[in-house]
Fold these 2 entries.
Entry 1:
Amino acid sequence: MSKLDTLARFLSEARRAVFFGGAGVSTESGIPDFRSPGGLYSEAPETIVSRSFFLAHPEEFYRFYRERMLYPEAEPGPAHLALAALERMGHLRAVVTQNIDGLHQRAGSRLVLELHGSVHRNHCVRCGRRYPLQAVLESEGLPRCVCGGLIRPDVVLYEEPLPAGVFERAEALVREADLLLVGGSSLTVYPAAGLLQYYRGSRLVLLNRTPTPADGRADLVLRGSIGAVLSAAVARL
Ligand code: NAD
C-alpha cells in the first residue's frame, strides 16, 4: 500500500481527526513562510516580529509588516481547500493553525483555532476599538484610531503569550484526536509546537517538505507539497 493510500485509509477511519499546520500551508497561496529558502526569516531578523521591537520601533515594524506579512490578494490554496473538504465530508474535526492569514476560513473550514491570532483583527491599544485589516492597509506610517491611539494587529508577536484559552481548546482537541495530521510547519515555534505532546493516538502523520524534529515519532511521513498530498488523499476518499 502506498503512503497516500495509508493516509486516505487513516482519514476514512478517523472520527476525531485534527490538522495542525503552519506557514507551509500557505506558501502555495504565494505567502512566504519563515524558514524555507527565500522565506521571511532568511531576509529579516525574527526580532522584527517581537513585542520589544514593535514597542521600540513601531514605524519600522509596520514597514516590514505591510510589505512582508500582509497578502490581502492571496487566495486559499489546495491544502486549505482539501482541509475544508475533509471537514465537510466528516473526516476532520478541526484545524489548528499557526497562520495569521485567515485562509482556512476563506476556504470554508468552520472550526479553526488560530494560535497566533489574525491580521484580519486589529484593535486600538488605547481605547480597544476594533478595526478590520483594511484600516491598516489604507493607512500610511502608523495606523491611528479615531481616538489617536495606535492600532495594532491581534497577532501574537514573539515574547507575547498566546490568546487566552485558544491553546487549551487546541490541546483538548489534540488529546481527543484519533488521527493527528501535522503539516507545513518546521515545528520550532513554541509553545505551538508543544501541541504534539498531547496526542495519545497511534496515527501521527507528518506532511512537510523538509524534515522536522517530530519525524522520528510519526507513524507516517509524507514529503513534498502539502497541497498535492492532501488533494490526492481527498480524491481517494
Ligand atoms: P516555518 O516557516 O518555520 O516552517 C514552514 C515549514 O513548511 C518548513 O518546514 C517548510 O519545509 C514547509 N513547507 C513550506 N511550503 C511547503 C509546502 N508547500 N508543502 C509542504 N511543506 C512546506 O513555519 P511555522 O512552523 O508555521 O512557523 C512560522 C511562524 O511564523 C508561525 O508562528 C506563523 O504564525 C508565522 N507565519 C505565518 C504565515 C502565514 O500566516 N501564512 C507566514 C509566515 C510566518
Entry 2:
Amino acid sequence: MGLLEGKTAMIFGVANDRSIAWGIAQAFAREGAQLGLSYAGEALEKRVRPLAAQIGCDFVEPCDVASDEQILHIAQRASQRFGKVDILVHAIAFANRDELSGPYYNTSRSGFHLAMDISVYSFTALARAFQPFIPAGGALLTLTYYGSEKVAPHYNVMGVAKAALEASVRYLAYDFGLQQVRVNAISAGPIRTLAAAGVSGFKEMYKRYAEIAPLHSNVTIEDVGNAAAFLCSDWASKITGEVLFVDSGYNILGIPEAIE
Ligand code: NAD
C-alpha cells in the first residue's frame, strides 16, 4: 500500500517537467494519492495538462495566487470535486529578475511587496481558503531555501521572503494544530528550474554546490518529491512547524573545503 493511499492532495506550482511541484506530484501519485494540480495562468496550461495526464490527474485548474477571488474559487472547486483536501502543497515563488542581482539594498518598494505577496502571503491565503476542507491528519507543505538563514549572494529579497515564509510555517503550524493538521517546509538545495534561472550566478553556484556538499551531489526533484511524500504522510504524524533540509547536507557546513 502507498504512503498516501486514501489521501487527496492539491499541488500548486507546476510550470513544467523541471518544477519541484512536478517531482512532488509524481511521488504523490506513485504513493497512491488522488491529485489536483493548479498552475499560474493560461500560458502554462498547455504544459501542465499533458503532465497531469501522465499521472492520471484530471483536476487541473488555473489560479493566480495574487488574487483572493481565484484562491477562494479553486478551494471551492476542489472541495466540491473531492469532498476534502488532505494535503496542500505550495511550491510557488516570484521576484522580479532585477531584484535578484546586485546589492540587496537596491530592492525597490514595489519589488519587495511583490516578492512577499506571491512567495509568502500566498501560502497563508491558500491555507485560510482550504482550512474548512482539510480534515484531521492533513498536512500543508511549502518550499524554502537556505538563503533565508544565511546570505546567498544575489538571492536578496527572496532570502528575506523565505525567512518570512518559514516564520509563517511556524504560526500556521500553531493554528492548524488545533485541527490536527501539520504544517512544514522543505528547504531544498539548488535545482535547475525556471524560478532558479532568474537568480544571478545560479549556474556557477549549482556546479560548486555538488563539489562542496557532504553528499557531493546535486538535489533532484525526485529527492524532494520523496521527502514531501514522507512529510505529508501519516509516518510524519508528530512533525509540525519544521523546516526539513533536503540539500545533500550543505547546511551543516561552517567553512567549505577549498576547491583545487
Ligand atoms: P518553478 O519555476 O518550476 O516553480 C515556481 C512556480 O511558481 C511556477 O509554477 C510558477 O508558475 C509559480 N508562480 C509564480 N507566480 C505565481 C502566481 N502569481 N500564481 C500562481 N503561481 C505562481 O521553480 P521551482 O524551483 O520548482 O520553485 C518551486 C518552489 O521551490 C519555490 O518556492 C522556490 O523558491 C522553491 N525552491 C527552489 C529551489 C531551486 O533551486 N529551484 C530551491 C529551494 C526552494
